[in-house]
């Protein structure tokens, strides 16, 4: 009884304690306990030895996977001559239908003298990025000339063709932007898209209807959340002539869609610059599309111009942005002066001589007609494109076809005609169909082309029969 | 004289003691005592040691490096506050400016109703903050970027919106270009051999290495590079930036972890972004932080799955181009071995310029280059050319020959560019039969030491290692970047200013790049001008002790 009373009293005493004082005692105790727990437990030996065991057991992969010594990429063909109309491959002096030298400017003596003079004036390297005393007067001159040639406001010059395209795309397309891209775009565009981390939609190769379908789909989605419609930037990225197929993009239709759905359009004119159009101004001249319809034209100095580097040209509003945001522009050493003046000289030649483009066009169609007669090859490339992909008519598995084409190419080189299969990496988004790639140049004559294709045909019959 | 020195040292010691986790006090005091024992005459080297102890402040007191010559002096509090304040004032003025005046820039035509192409803040920053000191960058030159460089004078009549050339030229002492060994020359063996090669092979190939762009000169260059660096094999590319950006993605894949220094170059960051691997950043050159990161990575494994990482890469640079610091390579190699990680070393600014034989950071520390898994470097700087290389084991290079983006798709290196590298590398290695290369390396080291010691004496804060030819001088305030660069130009000195966003907001700086081509007279001229400027603009932020004796510039015959 007594004890019961006592316990009841104890409880009643407890109930008189105000709640806040309970909190005052409990919270410090809790914190103290946590603190002690942390001090005692974490650095104890068991977790340390656990870690050691983990480290001991961890077997990281080797630095790189092994490559067998006889991989064909380890022994590329060696060229021991200047790469002009003729090219000496592993000792065979061949007629060159393999390297991109559409206007034959690589062999030009004028250009060579210009380059020598530049070394004498400026040395070889530029020793700095554009921002830090790496901008030479010759760079400004080349940029001005390219802009004038294309009849646009401003141009920037990059020091490497591949990085031009990938940097330019990543400078504009950002996370959350929508980018519509042709499924067959070349590797440098693919890398630019990877770097942009944008939302990317691929449409079927050169298929305007498929693009419109995607655009409509996109519009439908956006109707639901109308806030985003005006904020999301939308881009279309295409090539003038596709490196991997040799087809010309249907620019007028694409531009019409861009205006309708408010897309900005970037065209990679690496191949089409200096080859299409009466004055070699590219795909816009070819289709007679006003140049202000295109937001940015990206090009290469490496193929038609016979130099190294790349450029972007467009309105000042767009192009200025490169000078602080183009990664490959800001953070790379500028283009060596000698390669800059070579490009300027090439522009001089292109401006003086329209015949070059005419001869090139004729050569392209000669080659196109000759290929049409072939028993073994099909060519889906455009007639006016200097890049022609020859695909086997007979169907083979991917690897088998590639091997046979390699054989044919080897046979051609032995018979003094340089025709090659293009090199692709496994990391391409979609493996291009195996093909032989012809690069037509204005220095070839129609008899050269016919002779070359005859030998190709013969080589093919030997390999395939 | 001696007493003022001591008080200065004491001051810096008391400053240090306020730093919490650093126990450098004793170290710093010791040399001070030693100094008291000496009279003025020969105190220089000892004082230097003393200042070393003080210099290595908070960041590197944990590192037990044999070559700990780094300095990252902390910004004085008032300067920090002023920097912030100054920047906000600039922003505010810019904002008012934007309200009142329409910008004098090109507008987009024919694109009404489109989503704006640029972010608003970015536009504002460029137009109203950056524009004020825009004239300090992108300055066109019209000569060889050698010891001297000719700038094309330009003026602006509308506060930096546009520029006009006056047609005048200004010959400046060049402390802006990366011409460490002075190979930016328009005559001499490099230019002559390059012209010969140009005559033989033309200037471009129009084809990638895997197709038909593979010339004997490329093989020669690769063999020479591998031999020079003391590794099995090397592969070369036509652009330095692309060497990082286009090869990292094939080396580092999904399921790998990359631990990357916070001050790594944009090309590395781009390459890592393209790779799809997970990247974690560690504090600049901080070995302890790196070790923590390594431990956590191994302990926790991959996120979500918890599986162990496939590989762990540590990506660092040899000499950091904005910090002037040299990587703590021996410690990194130790860590890499202990934790089974792989080491990627970007030697863009160190190859040629560092080490007794000019072979880069490994040479500088006397480390076996084969301990670094992937050696990357560029030919733009010390070799006065363009392009880049990756060197390492045969297996690594073979893998790249098969999988590298640049090797497969991008055009091969231009022959005269390759020749310039071959000739200059042979000179550096002494394979040309002269001592020219050794002389240049020595001259660069001597210039570096002299220039840095004199700057310390002047009392400005400079970052980085004593041996690094990249010398960032801190000016902190945004507006001071502009005024220093402009004033130096009027005195015919070309230097580079770097500010936000290339550096942290607080750390505006002027960067000097030394070259073997600079003479003592040129450096003296520059230093005298900096001293004068430092007085008028208030750049003497340093609280370190100053060497009261004239700094010696050793002549050729003297040993150090």
UniProtKB/TrEMBL annotation, chain A:
UniProt GO molecular function: serine C-palmitoyltransferase activity
Documented EC number(s): 2.3.1.50
Source organism per UniProt: Trichogramma kaykai
Keywords from the named record: Acyltransferase, Lipid metabolism, Membrane, Pyridoxal phosphate, Sphingolipid metabolism, Transferase, Transmembrane, Transmembrane helix
InterPro entries named in the record: Aminotransferase_I/II_large (IPR004839), AON_synthase_class-II (IPR050087), PyrdxlP-dep_Trfase (IPR015424), PyrdxlP-dep_Trfase_major (IPR015421), PyrdxlP-dep_Trfase_small (IPR015422)
Source taxon at top rank: Eukaryota
GO biological process, one term: sphingolipid metabolic process
A GO CC term assigned to this protein in UniProt: membrane
Cross-referenced SUPFAM superfamilies: PLP-dependent transferases
Protein's name according to its UniProt entry: Serine palmitoyltransferase 1
Transmembrane segments: 17-36
Cofactor: pyridoxal 5'-phosphate
Aminotransferase class I/classII large domain: residues covered: 93-455
From TrEMBL, chain B:
SUPFAM superfamilies: PLP-dependent transferases
Top class in the EC scheme: transferase
Cofactors: pyridoxal 5'-phosphate
Catalytic activity, as annotated: L-serine + hexadecanoyl-CoA + H(+) = 3-oxosphinganine + CO2 + CoA
Listed GO MF terms: serine C-palmitoyltransferase activity
InterPro entries to which the protein is assigned, alphabetical: Aminotrans_II_pyridoxalP_BS, Aminotransferase_I/II_large, AON_synthase_class-II, PyrdxlP-dep_Trfase, PyrdxlP-dep_Trfase_major, PyrdxlP-dep_Trfase_small
Pfam families xrefs: Aminotran_1_2
Transmembrane segments: 75-96
Assigned keywords, A-Z: Acyltransferase, Membrane, Pyridoxal phosphate, Transferase, Transmembrane, Transmembrane helix
EC number in record: 2.3.1.50
Domain called Aminotransferase class I/classII large: residue spans: 171-530
Family: Belongs to the class-II pyridoxal-phosphate-dependent aminotransferase family.
Designated name of the protein: serine C-palmitoyltransferase
Origin organism lineage: Eukaryota, Metazoa, Ecdysozoa, Arthropoda, Hexapoda
